[in-house]
Amino acid sequence: MAAEQKQKLEQQLWNIANTLRGKMDADDFRDYILGFIFYKYLSTKMDLYANTILQPDGLTFQEIEGHAEEAALLEEIKQLALDKLGYFLLPSELFSELARRGNAGGKNNFILGDLSKVLTHIEQSTMGSESEEDFGNLFSDLDLTSHKLGKSESDKNELIVKVLVHLDEIDFDLENTDSDVLGDAYEYLIGQFASGAGKKAGEFYTPQQVSSILAQLVTVGKDQLKSVYDPTCGSGSLLLRVAKEVKNVSAFYGQEMNPTTYNLCRMNMIMHDVHYKRFDIKNEDTLERPQHYDMRFEAIVANPPFSANWSASPLHMTDERFSAYGKLAPSSKADFAFVQHMVHQLDDYGTMAIVLPHGVLFRGAAEGHIRQYLIKEKNYLDAIIGLPANIFYGTSIPTCILVLKKKRENPNDILFIDASQHYEKVKTQNVLRTEDIDKIISTYKLYVSHPELVEGQNKYSHLAPLSEIETNDYNLNIPRYVDTFEEEDTIDLQAITAELRELAAQSKTTDATIAEFCIELGIETPF
């Protein structure tokens, strides 16, 4: 039933999103539709919570207006809501009320001014409270004055009212606390926008198939986590995916440089009912200005921008994240800088998993030096998993996952998995199937618990002793370790000779038949 409900809700929301599709590009209508869904979510939560408080008084939140104790009741609800929900809305500011006013009498009544004030007030209601940072500027990307919504103010208003009215007709079923149908539907929409956003999609979304692998890798043997961290958290999909793999995550931490994506991440957290006190998402450049520098995390996951530019400033050589290595990642390829940052933040008994381009496995110079230090001096590298090409939005390059631990179960070996040929082609994209993901995870679990059994998976995995890594001069290119060579079938020359003789005999018979026909017809034979 939940699956059917989820699918229905996803389709309803996507249909409403398409009312904006013809008006603007994917990035813009993504920001509007997700912002309005979020506003309705906050409004519904506020209404439900206030009704619970007012139940002993025999009142509902929308019946407060005009009550003899209206001011006192609103102040009490506000204080309780700021602690419980992190924000406050007046009854007149509820989503349903704005939608009703905009469509009262079936007319296009002007509400843009009121809507803008409500969105601003949601943010202002948190000022001075513990949730101020978590709700600040959340709606900054919803520009209700943008010409993209329409040429005239009336056109803009008509479009917004249409979207609000359609959304108001959908039941988000927030009373059902056992279900996260809305959160999953919100994640579905983010994924839909990502699939049509081309190269830019990688800035805010990790495909769920990859998120699932990373999340399962860092939760092997655990049913709860004290903390999970993503230094390039995008829309937060990876952090939330980790939460699905365990019974409980006490706290979520992340950092995101893009302000729009940072807003999307915070919305996504709240939409999945993660209380504002349980997440700490920062808007800053992770490599240049890390915001959780002194903290250590039990699980770390990341899909950083591949081979991004960074400063590689010599000043970083005094930074604990990089100083021990003696080298910085090159300015044109920040891949290992992210690895070094994550290692610094990793708890002694934690696990980290990061997706990177294949080049990190074999490129030389500073990257080769850092790679050797991680293996020879620290012995943190636990596993390398080769993924198929063309599974990420906006890039077709093959990628790999590095798993690192400071306290490894098998300190004398490194696991190599070649999953590059295990996928299904769907249109122009390669997709990891459930069985492909399960094979990766089961192989890694086997390595953790019974490493001696891993070698039985021919042409898929290999347990490489550290001595073998050293022999290969710390080059980790997967084909050096996992033999995927397919032997060709043995050719039976005697059988082929016999077949050729038979064909020759058949040819002579055919030639003779043709010659007889030619004689009967009185024409020359063609040979």
From TrEMBL:
GO molecular function list: DNA binding; N-methyltransferase activity; site-specific DNA-methyltransferase (adenine-specific) activity
Catalysis performed (reactions): a 2'-deoxyadenosine in DNA + S-adenosyl-L-methionine = an N(6)-methyl-2'-deoxyadenosine in DNA + S-adenosyl-L-homocysteine + H(+)
Claim: S-adenosyl-L-methionine is one of the keywords in the record: yes
EC number per UniProt: 2.1.1.72
Keywords, sorted A to Z: Methyltransferase, Restriction system, S-adenosyl-L-methionine, Transferase
Domain DNA methylase adenine-specific: 178-489
A single BP term in Gene Ontology: DNA restriction-modification system
Domain N6 adenine-specific DNA methyltransferase N-terminal positions: 9-166
S-adenosyl-L-methionine found in the keyword field: yes
Gene3D superfamilies: 1.20.1260.30, Vaccinia Virus protein VP39
Family annotation (NCBIfam families): hsdM (TIGR00497)
Family: Belongs to the N(4)/N(6)-methyltransferase family.
Protein name: site-specific DNA-methyltransferase (adenine-specific)
Organism this protein belongs to: Flavobacterium sufflavum
